[in-house]
Amino acid sequence: MKTEISATEAIVTRGGSPARRLRSKADSTGARIRSVLKHAGLTALAVLMLYPVVWMLVSSFRPTAEIFTTPGLSLEGFTLENYTLGWDALSQPFGRYLLNSALVVLGAIVGNLVSCSLAAYAFARLAFKGRRWMFGLMLLTIMLPLQVIIVPQYIMFNSVGWVNTVLPLIVPKLFATDGFFVFLMVQFIRGLPRELDEAARIDGCGHFRTFWQILLPLMTPALATTAIFTFIWTWNDFFSQVIYLTSPESYTVQPALRAFLDSQGQSSWGPLFAMSIVSIVPVFLAFLFGQKYLVRGIATTGLK
To answer: Within a 10 A sphere around the Cβ of 137, how many other Cβ atoms?
Structure first.
């Protein structure tokens, strides 16, 4: 009996019965196969999504006559002429349009960070009459498409002489008009312990000092997420910018790229692709260096 017990204990110690070891090995092999198939599918999907961008990058180094005649990604004739021509093809150097976009983006980021964080603190921490229905009304603005409000906005800004300036693209950001970012920060602040506010009040802090010195430093992930999304959405915005910016001197990147299709009565595809690659670089760098904060901000906001 002792011998049988010892043999059984030895089998269990070595990993259980042979049938159990076979099942475990089969499960491990199946999990490995599923993992390989999943990664292969994701890789194929990534290649499919990136192919247009890679094709545009390769085409920016082709002579214009070969862009639509050379198949695939093969690069037979290499030239940098598209970049030199595209930089000076319009009435202003393309760097002017990059600076205009940078100005609009910087103003939008500062406006959203300041106004949305203050509004979020009010909704999350202050008790005032009508807070619930005002918060619900703010959420309803997220569902309104831009095309619904662009006409009354244009009439209002035109009446004060702001058309063909960057003010209609920056000033509304100072009034927390982006409900998505307000909601994002409200959810984040609600996840912070209220004991922090109580301790600050015991130390004599008012609401603004509590917000500025206690809560705002803890909101870095949500603030970074707001800044990155604002940068990408504002930089890539075409509709609003082409509505309000009418003169070539005030163009940002997106209206300037549209102008390549009309310059000299023909489509300048080579310079257009070259300047499109130049315009993509800031967005790529913003996502590359801010990806960690972007993922952390969305994840922590969702958990809290």
So the answer is: 11
